[in-house]
Amino acid sequence: MSVINYANRVIDFKIVYYGPGLAGKTANLQYIYRSLPNANRGNMISLATGDDRTIYFDFLPVSALTVRGFQTRFQLYTVPGQVQYNATRRLVLRGADGLVFVADSQFERLRENVESFRNLEANLHEYESTLDEIPYVLQYNKRDLPNQAPVTYLEFVLNRRGARVPYFEASAIEGKGVFDTLNTVSRMALASEFGVGRERRHEVS
Amino acid sequence: MPLPRAVRARLVWALELSLGLELYACAVLALHARGLRATPLEASLALVLPALVIPPVFYLLVALVSIRPLALAPMNVSVATMCALHAMLVLATGALFMITDLLGYGGAVAFALWGSPTVTLLQLTAVPLVFARLRPLVFAWLRPLMVSSRAPRAGARAVATQRSVPETLSAAPSPAAAGAATLPPMIRPLAPVVNRTAPMARPPVVVRPAVKPAAPAARPTTPPPAPGAVQSVAPPTPVAGQPLLKTWTPSPAPPVVSTAATPSSSATPVEPKPSAPSSKGAIDWTEPMVRVPFVRIADQLPVEMFARGREGLKDTLRPGVSLLAPRKLLLPHLAEGLAPVKWDVVADQFPLDELALSHEEIAERLPDGSLLLPLDEVVPQIPPELLALSTPPADVRQLEEFPAPFQPQAATAEPVVGPARRDAESAPEIGAQPEDTVARADSADESPESVAAPEPEVDEEVAPEEPEVEETLAVDDDADRSRKTQPEPPGLAATVRATPSAASAIDRDKREHAQRIAALLTPLLNGLEIGQHDGAGTTLVTAVAPTLSEEAVIQTAARIVPFLTDARLPEPVTQATLTAAGATVVLTPFGSPSGGGALLATAIASRASLAWLERVSRMAAREAQSETGRGRRSGPEADSNADIELRTTAVPTAVRELAGALTAFGPVAPTLLRDRTGLLSACLFLPSSLDALPLAQFARDLYGALGGAEIGRVASVILKLGARRVILRSMDGESGNVTMLVGVGRIDRPGLARIELDRAATRLAALVGS
Questions:
Q1: Domains: count for chain A
Q2: Residue A126's domain spans which residues?
Q3: Is B638 within the bounds of a domain?
Q4: Which of A14, A65, A83, A198 to mutate to test the interface with B (most CBs of B within 10 A)?
């Protein structure tokens, strides 16, 4: 749920980057951190092991546009992808306003993608929520590597729910597709907050 | 015209067999040339008995050391076959001696059998070598007979173990390495008949009728393929309508070869597992197949399953040898990111004589009894239409009403950032950057206190970030020149405009500063119109909300410009915030003093995110701000309102009590000044180190200058003086008198300070009213 500060007209959104280990979630945030103007972002907090594996989460607060009088701010989180950190993943997932599922495009990682996606659904279920209720997009990362699965197949594997959500081909380390992904999930979160049916809520307030 | 692979293999096999026999004949002839002559022999027991006993015993020993797993049936078959070969060689040798030595055939055969130990040794050597070449053929011929003989028993036992079949038939003496190296490949060379996407054509082989299954669950056996010869495809018992891999579940463990298991040497048939194989062998060779090179899955197979080990198997592999799996069995699992295929489905493609384990044992050693086919081999062979999703795309039309919230810096400010800067920007570890700093900076507005005070703690807590921007702005000339060569972003070019009359007067430094700040502000302050103006002795870069009058902002800013460097202030003003009913204006000096200075004026309609706006403005103007701080102090030192003389008066007790409530300012003492008429009062709460009178006069003049401001009545002014802040607000009394409140201090929490001053104003107004 977004946090609304009516006194200051500020809305905070929580965007969580989810996916299997080594899929490139932290790389996404690092590129965003590098690319946004300093004034538009806070410090990035990253707690990682010596081999750059996230063991808790990454956090990057960023500010964005003003929508209908509300200043919007986005808090970007990643989850640790390794299987043993599910409790942390579930914790980070709480209250997410938008999700980016970062999938590894390599053939040999497809199974991990599927398991991580199921883990995402299971963790949402713990909060009595589903992916139907939270805006999310798919990012097929590592498109620069040679052993990549075709997008058709990645869609077949990961985007087979009731409605196909937007997906993006990306190479996070090079920044390709990173902002397309972020902008789309942010707009989906904004639409979820300010879209039709939600306007009355703000007008009343 | 090249021969087909199968024909070539058959030819090579025949040539090798002929070569072995020819070598034997040559050796016999060589002995004959060296004086060995066949002579009539007496059939004494001492001669005949060894000749009849030694070869079978020798062949039994050969079978004992070479047949694995050790089993009676293959041993018997092997010994019998070798004895038969021995007999044939004896007969052929007899014919040879009959021709050369003009001896009767009976006598010549007798001589070939027991007449010469040398000839007998040649025969004992030649027979195992020849048998090595004949073994696959022998097994191919004998397997159906063996199976049919077992069928009744299998029917009685519900199923016959598959292991008994190859064990009965496989009787490979350990051949010489040369012989082993030329064995035919284990996997049938079916690759040439596979079409990647078209339905699989049945291999052009002679299909033998399947052995009648003795029981529904009995595994139909398939004769091993003769090397390059007849291939027997025995369709397993079909299970109509049942997915073969229905019970497959993903296993987290990688499909590695089990090394702990050892092959069983028992020839005892094993009872089949009840769960085993309802899915056996439903291969329809006319359906589309997926081809996977055998080398891609060889590592998943348990090493003990091969009679000659995996390496020996690989040595026999030829390029293009592939495993075939029905596409329809793989499709249901592709959605899980896997392509498993049950061993039962592909088992028939492995020649039994090369397997040391039964299929059931092999399946038990595989994870879930399945092989995992590599997806990069499988997926390209799946027609895209089978992977196409029929679900509708999500409706994203609603997103179009929202602009993209984030724009990477690369298009505008990125060139400013040099390589060293990039390194410095790497995300700090949590140890290096305390979490609460960011958390508090980010959630400053979330606390109840900050809800009422929009511009609070953020200022101080984000201070460590500001030097980064300072670096960003502190570009060298080279960077500036490189920027000039780049086309200006269209959006920025459209928003930056200059008044025509003054544009020519703006020097180059100012323009560059303005453009740079505008470039920084563009992605941050969405919706603000950025302009550039010259007047009031300074260059004014404005970022104004569309709902506000830019002209009003400019004119209001011009009123306050002279006060920013007023000498009556303890320090130069680094930022001024004017709050009116309908607008909030933040003025931030920047630019070099030599260039006349410049002012960034940002204006928004509400107080929302005021702290953010102040922070952004300071960061954008950071570079020049420090220089301004060292610059001249050219404020209106002359008392322009000298006729309004302020005099110190006694401070009432109630006002002293108010001072004690201003905790955010630190220790302050109240000072009260009034003019002669009593219409203007100034109540100051200052640290003891500051003189009250100059500040009171400054507040009086500033209040006078802002009277009738174009943005509306200014309710409060906050001046940032380095670490200090001066907060001014005025109160209009009912009788027309005006009271100014001035609070000064090293304020860590400006939002709280403003609230406390508001409360003080309320109480003071009550006191004045009473």
A1: 1
A2: 3-199
A3: no
A4: A65
Q: CB distance from A40 to chain B under 8 Å? A: yes
A8 vs B425: CB contact, 8 Å cut-off? Answer: no
Q: Which residues form the domain of B64? A: 5-148
B313: in domain: yes
Question: Phi then psi for B340, rounded to 5 degrees?
Answer: -85, 150
**Number of compact structural domains in chain B:** 4
Same domain, B199 and B330: yes
**Shortest distance, CA A45 to any CA of chain B (angstroms):** 6
Q: Give the whole-angstrom CA distance, residue B560 versus residue B563.
A: 5
Q: Is residue B169 part of a domain?
A: no
Q: Does the beta carbon of A49 lie under 8 angstroms from any beta carbon of chain B?
A: no
B370 and B509 belong to one structural domain: no
For the domain that residue A150 is a member of, what is the CATH number?
3.40.50.300
Q: Each residue of B141-175: pLDDT tens digit?
A: 665 555 455 444 434 443 333 333 333 323 333 33
The whole-angstrom distance between A61's CA and the closest CA on chain B is 7
* Kind of pairing between the strands at B529-535 and B538-544: antiparallel
Collect all residues of chain B within an 8 Å Cβ-Cβ radius of residue A112.
337
Q: How many percent of chain B have pLDDT more than 90?
A: 4
Domain assignment present for residue B585? The answer is yes
Residue where one domain finishes, among candidates B148, B177, B212: B148
Q: Is B334 on the interface with A (CB under 8 A)?
A: yes
Q: Is B385 near chain A, with CB under 8 Å? A: no
- This prediction's pTM: 0.42
- Co-location of B138 and B205 in the same domain: no
B230 shares its domain with B369: yes
For residues B661 and B669, give the distance between their C-alpha atoms in angstroms, rounded to a whole number.
Answer: 11
| Model pLDDT for residues B367-412, shown as the tens digit of each residue | 889 999 999 999 999 998 888 888 888 877 778 778 888 888 744 3
Cβ within 8 Å of residue B286, ≥6 positions away: B199, B200, B201, B202
Q: Does residue A205 sit within a domain?
A: no
Domain shared by B226 and B286, yes or no: yes
* Token output for A182: 């972020």
**Considering only CB atoms, which chain A residues are within 8 Å of B450?**
8
Which residue among B334, B409, B433 sits closest to A37, beta carbon to beta carbon? Answer: B409
A204 domain residue, yes or no: no
Confidence of residue B712 (pLDDT cuts 50, 70, 90): confident
- For B415, counting Cβ atoms within 10 Å of its Cβ (0-12 exposed, 13-18 middle, 19+ buried), the class is middle
3-state helix, strand, coil in chain A (%, to 5): 35, 30, 35
A113 in a structural domain: yes
Residues of chain B contacting residue A162, judged by C-beta atoms under 8 Å apart? 391
Q: Say whether both B367 and B486 belong to one domain.
A: no
The DSSP line for A38-87 is: GGGB-PPEEEE-TTS-EEEEEEEEEEEEEETTEEEEEEEEE---SGGGHH
Q: Which of B375, B435, B442 is nearest residue A75 as measured by Cβ atoms?
A: B442
Q: Which of B338, B381, B399, B600 to mutate to test the interface with A (most CBs of A within 10 A)?
A: B399
A97 CB within 8 Å of a chain B CB: no
